[in-house]
Amino acid sequence: MLIIGYFLGSIPSGVWVGKLMYGKDVRNYGSGNMGTTNTFRVLGKKAGTIVLFMDMFKGSLTALLPMFFGMHVNALLIGLSAIIGHVFPIFAGFKGGKAVATSVGVLLVYNPEFFAIAWVIFLITLFLSSMVSVSSMVGFTLITVASLFYHDPILTVVALVLTIVVFIRHWGNIERIKNGTENLVPFGLVYWHKQKK
User: Fold this and answer.
1) Mean pLDDT in order along the chain per 10 residues (197 residues)
2) First CA to last CA across the chain, in angstroms?
3) Could you tell me if 79 and 14 lie in one domain?
4) Which of 107, 108, 129, 150 is the residue whose CA sits 20 to 30 A from 159?
């Protein structure tokens, strides 16, 4: 299951969608990342939405493997293999995405209620900041804190580890945020404030 999950996670959704539908490699544009945000930025809403659901589906399908195999194994731990595959994909030179969408896909299977909470936190933060990077980092941090109330040690430990990974993967974004050059989505308070200037 771990091997299958890793290979599922390694599917470079953004690269495949970009090349097959638009004849472009998203890694050559924008931030150079093959994830959902850069796909939205480079190829538009349609491609970005497809990549978002593909990346989430990789995580969800991997988390469902214990059920498919009829084994009593923690779905969250199996789902980690897809997240690792997404970050270090064998099909894309081990240079992958930032773990956000695939992690959310795993969470959807593991705990649907907590998945809903995670989305609410992400969307509120996105509304306040207009930055996906900030929403991802703050979101994972708050999700880790919220996990404490579920009294699920595995969920809390995995959430903490993923929060660290997300911060590391967003290091370049952190520098751009400090410099005031981080990309904004056309939505939210910060974006609207800058539009008025």
Assistant:
1) 97 95 93 89 93 97 97 95 96 92 95 92 94 94 92 93 94 91 90 86
2) 53
3) yes
4) 129
